[in-house]
Amino acid sequence: MAKLWGGRFSGGPAAALEALNASIGFDWRLAPYDIKASKAHARVLNRAGLLTESELERMLDALDGLAADVAAGDFTGTVADEDVHTALERGLVERLGELGGKLRAGRSRNDQIATDLRLYCRDHARGLAADLTELVKALAGQAERLIEAPAPGMTHLQHAQPITLGHQLLAHAQGFLRDLERLSDWDGRAAVSPLGSGALSGSSLPLDPVAVAAELGFDRPVANSLDGVSDRDFAAELLFVCSMVGVHLSRLGEEVILWSSQEFGWVALDDAFSTGSSIMPQKKNPDVAELARGKSGRLVGNLTGLLVTLKGLPFTYNKDLQEDKEPVFDSLDNLALLLPAVTGMVETMRFDTEVPREAAPKGFSLATEIADWLVRKGVPFRDAHEVAGACVAHCERLGIELHEIDDAGLAAISEHLDPSVKQVLDVDGALAARTTPGSTGPKAVADQLAAVREAVETWVRWSER
Ligand code: ARG
Q: CB of 115 closer than 6 A to ligand 1?
């Protein structure tokens, strides 16, 4: 197979170079996008007087035929084709003869690949967004059932203050909602078309980058052709969003792993989303949650890898840039595998609300209530904190809980204390008292849930655009 660049070369490339240089092994999935961009380019060549009407018609027909054959698997790139662009040009020439060779005018693989990858990323960002909305809905569904279910809220993985499980699940949802917002504002920056940049300097042919951009769904063409063929910010930024999603999934995964352990016993995973052991028949393992935690490694790795590839690259195109594709594909592929599984796991897991309810007041998690009670009586928080701390120390000495301190004990700890303090030493009371927006009280959580559901609908609509 003759190379696109064969003109000035005397002999063919060494097999080792060919094997190294080829991207066809991984860029074939860009074929539909490459064809779409080719159709837009053909129309521009026609308007520039470089393709007659009938040539344009034959060209568009052939490109449609090629697209159908690619979709059906009847036309594929081979190892002899260096990359997706070479393979598709071969397909076009096979169909059109000489006319097929006209499409390359005013265009280079450099602006083509930058365009194809942007189109691919923008398309798949919507798929990622759709998967994220499903996960947020699953978290919201669980949260609704657990709006009044108390659990120990933790800092440092130690009991801190009582919270509701609904509140904790929605905390995870908030991160994924931010990821959705990131995708949509990333998309605004990615909506720029490199076609027309040519190899690097633009073109002497009367092309129309604005029309091409519009036809391909971009907002505008690039402002600088050198940037057009060199910029991979859009790929790195998308990999950052994927990494952030991965980090959020890993934190959710870790909590599910903890909650489903015998030591916690807060949640039971559905059989359909758990695995067994080949040797221990009693085992039920949280593999989905572990992969949610584990895959964050490769997601962050893909981002890091691309950033290092880009660092120090001189302008404009360098073959290093061919290394941009696999990390992008890998991150998007892995999230497409992972998110539906995590969503299924979240949807089907069953909480045992009694265990976390009983655990909620343990570890003196209501001590802050004593301090707040004293503050409401005019005691400075600094002193109130001291008194509440003395209550905890008293309980630890006697091996009792805060609500079990007797009247004499209270009086001995501080002149500010009296038995009416015990009214706040109740988990449900402490939760109900938290009424400020964003707090863990059932009313505030219900408001939060409504807002999450409204936000998710916005992102569902965005993902369908
Ligand atoms: N396969 C190449 C890539 O992925 C396409 C661009 C080739 N450009 C070039 N000047 N060799 O980046």
A: no
